[in-house]
Amino acid sequence: MEESVASARTPSVIGGACIIASVCVGAGMLGLPSSGAGAWTLWSSFALLLTMVVMTLSGWMLLEALKHHDLRASFNTVTKAMLGPRVNVFSNLMVYFVGGILLYAYITSSGLIIQGVTGLSSKLASVAFVAVFSLVVWHSTRAVDRLSVVLVTFMLLSFVLGVSGLAARIDFSVLFDTASQQGHYAPYALAMLPVALTSFGYHHSVASMRAYYGEERKAQKAILGGTSIALAFYLAWLVSIFGNLPRADFGPVVVQGGNVDALLAALGSAIDSERVANTISAFSAAAILSSFVGVGLGTFDFMADLFGFKNDRKGRTKTWAITFLPPLVLSLLFPFGFVLAIGYAGAAAAVWACIIPALLARKSRTLAGGDVGFRAPGGQAAIALVLVFGVVTVLFHFMGLAGWLPVLAF
Questions:
Q1: Membrane-spanning regions, if any (predicted)?
Q2: Of 102, 238, 244, 324, whose CB is crowded by the most CB atoms within 10 A?
């Protein structure tokens, strides 16, 4: 009897995988179609698969480094101890920038979606969104787990209904762009990488997963499960979108910075089923909410560790304030394009979600006890792959801003 009670209280890998998947899916699902319009179906799919493999490895490398510290340690603690205070300060800025700009993007997008449904001011809707759903993060990781399971289940159902409606209307000449005379798709995938990287940017939650399970092995399985779920969502989504919405129809979406409301409007005009359009809109809203609470949890735990706030009501309220209020204020004052925000997040995330974890894993293996316990697979080759991928992603982002990468003209 006691054994069954104990096992019932052990967090499931499925719950953790849902948290990881929910952190990923919001940004990627809504930012990838516009950023991948140049690369189109095959090259976008390849870029996503490569990014998923690299980002799963980098999360495992972070787990490997965390094994040298207690369960309350976060990114700040492990980076400072293993790479020094200067690297740690820069890394912390990148961590908070990514968490903050993702929350900023979700808050802004949620306001636009709620405005479209209710007619409320987008700014008022954004404030209400944060006021209600940030309290889930303030309450506990368990609350985020339960909400994430509900949201991922809802997303799966609405996604299946919506995508099945889109899939029934797929035009293969549109899906493979056979009518276009433009046969060079690979170069456009370079500019897509920062958004693809952000689409698997769950690394805020790695330390939270380790603390949640109390060990690395289950956290490793949860990470792999979460990134696999996210990849399956992304591939099915892109095929469905690119099979229904011709390249030329992405023009208005790209002009508006890839904003979610513009994407949904373009989809609504391209398909003739109101039911499918409404289901896709419901899915998009759930994706933003699930990613908001997932990213919020990881950023919340990181800030608590960074400032040493206690895990009581007063301490969690302080952490809540510095986690959610700055992106809310910036969203109200300076809203801008969704894909642009995600691209900046991707460049910063490449530093702390690829480069830093690779350096941490390499350092971990030189420490006493580094060969004991959890170790990310792949050896030095995997470390090199993650490191190089992070560096080139940052370079591609700034090359794109400078106009040195090909941009699909509409």
A1: 12-30, 42-66, 87-107, 113-137, 149-170, 185-202, 222-242, 282-307, 319-336, 342-361, 382-405
A2: 102
